[in-house]
Amino acid sequence: MRHAILEVAWQAWIVSLRDLKRFWQNIYWLAGQVAMNIADLLIFGLIFRGVVKPELIPDYIRFITPGILCLSIFISSFTIGREVGVELRREVTQYLVSLPVTRGALVAGRVLGGVLRGFMYQAGFLLLAVILMGPPTLERWLLILLVSLMIAITMSSLSITLVTLTRDFNLQAAIRSMVYFAFFFISNVFYPERALEARLGPLAPIARYSPVSMAVSIYRHAFNYLREVDLKFNLLGLGAWCITTFLFAYKLYIRNLTR
Amino acid sequence: MLIAMWDLMKLKNQKVFIAMRLAWFIVQIIVFARAISYVVSTKILQYTGGVDYYLFYILGVYTTVLYTTGIARGYMIAEEFDDGIVEYHLSLPVKRDVLAVGRVLGGSVSTLIFTLPMMAVVYAMLGVRDLFTIVVAIISALVFSAGVVSFVVLIVFTIKSTDLTDIIVGAIDALLVRLSTVFYPLPVILATGIAPYYVVAALNPISHMSDFLRLLVFPEYYIVVQHGPVASILYILGFSTGLLILAIEFYEKKAEAGGWR
User: Fold this and answer.
1) ipTM of this model?
2) Residue A75: HSE in the Cβ half-sphere, 13 Å Cα cutoff
3) I want to staple A101 with a disulfide (CB 3.0 to 4.6 A). Which of A11, A222, B113, B154 is the partner?
4) Where are the domains of chain A?
C-alpha cells in the first residue's frame, strides 16, 4: 500500500515537472505577469494610498500587498488550465493517456504542476511582501505555506475543471477570464469587507466564502496587518474548496481524456 | 466594404462571448467600481473637478473594454495567419491598401458593435440622454478602435506568431491600462511625484480616450475647465490615422512574397 502511494506520488512528480518546464518557456508571458503584479502593487498601491479613506484603510500598500501575494499564486497556478486547454484542442490527449502512469497520478501531476508554478512564481512576491511588511514569525510562515498550498491546489483544479467544460478554445479563454475576474472583484483583495457590505448589502457574504478572500485574510494576519482573523473558518473553508475543486478536476479531466 | 464584412460576419458566432463579456462588465461596474469608490475619499473630487469617482471610473472601464476588444480582433487576424486564410485574402482582386483599410475598418466596426451594450449600460447609469453626446461618443469609439486594431495588425505582422502575439499583446495591454487615467485622474498621478509615470499616462491613448468620454459627459471635468476638448480630439485622430497609415504600409510591404510567414 505504502509502495503504491509512493509510486503514484513519483509518477505525479514526473508529470508535474513537464508542466513546470513549460512554464519557464513562456518567458514573455511571465515577464508581463510579473510587471502587471508589481504595477498593481506599486502603482495602484502608491496612488490609492493618497486617495483612500484613512479610517477604512490606513496604509493601502500594506493592505494590498497580501492581496497581490494571493493573486500571484492564483494566476500562476491558474495557467495550468491554459496548458490543458491547448492539449485538448490539439488532441495531445492520446499521448497523455498512453503514458505509463495511472489516471490518478496523471491528474495529481497536472494539479501538482500548477502548484509548483504557483510556488515558484509567488516566491519573489513573498520576498517583496517581507520587505514591505516585515518578516512573519516561524509559526506564521508555516501558515503562509499552508494557505499557499491550498489556494494553489484550488486554482489549479478549478482551471482544469473550467477548460474541460468545452473544447472550444475561445470559449475556454472566455470562461477562464470570467471566473478569474469574478474571484478578483468579489473578494477582499482591493477593498475591505466593510466596503462590500456597504455596497452589496445582503450579498456581501458571498465574498467571505471566496477562497481568495479566505487566503488574503490569513496572509494579512500572518503579515501582521490584521491582528485577528477567524483562522478556523478560513482554513476549513479553504480546505473544503481544495477538496471539492480537486474532485471536480479529477472527474472532468478523466472524462475528457478517455471519451 | 466587402473586406470589412468579413470581420462583421464573424460577430454572428460571438453572441455567447458578447453576453459573457457584458455579464463580466456588469459585475465589474456593480461590484468592483462601487466597492472601490466606497474606499476612495472625497479628496479626489479636487482632482476630478468635482466628478464623482464612481462615474469617473465607469467611463474608464468602458474605455478598457473598447481597447481590449480592439486588441482581441488582432488575435483573430493572427489566427488567420496560422490557419492560412491570409493567402486567401491576398489572392482577392483588391489592392493591398484597400485590404488593409477593409480589415481595420471591419475590426473597428466589430469592436464598436461588440462594446455597444457596455456603452449603453454606462450611459444608462450616468443618465445620459443627449443624442449629440451619444453620437460623438460612438464616432470617437470607432475612430479609437481603428487605431487599436491598426496597432495590433502591426504587432501581428512584426511577430508572426499567434502564441507570442497573445503573450506580448497581453503584457502591453495590462501595462497600458495600469499606466493610464482609467483608475485615477492625471493630477493624482502628478501628485505622486513619479515623473516617468506621469509622462506615460499623459501620452497614453487609453488616457486620452477615457478623458474624452468624460469631458463629453461632465462639463465640470477638470480637462474641460483647464485645457478644453481640442487636444484630446486631435490626439485620438492623430493616433488612429498614424497607425492606420502604418498598417497599410505593413500590408503593402510585409505581405508580399510570403512575407507574412
Assistant:
1) 0.80
2) 18
3) A11
4) 8-258
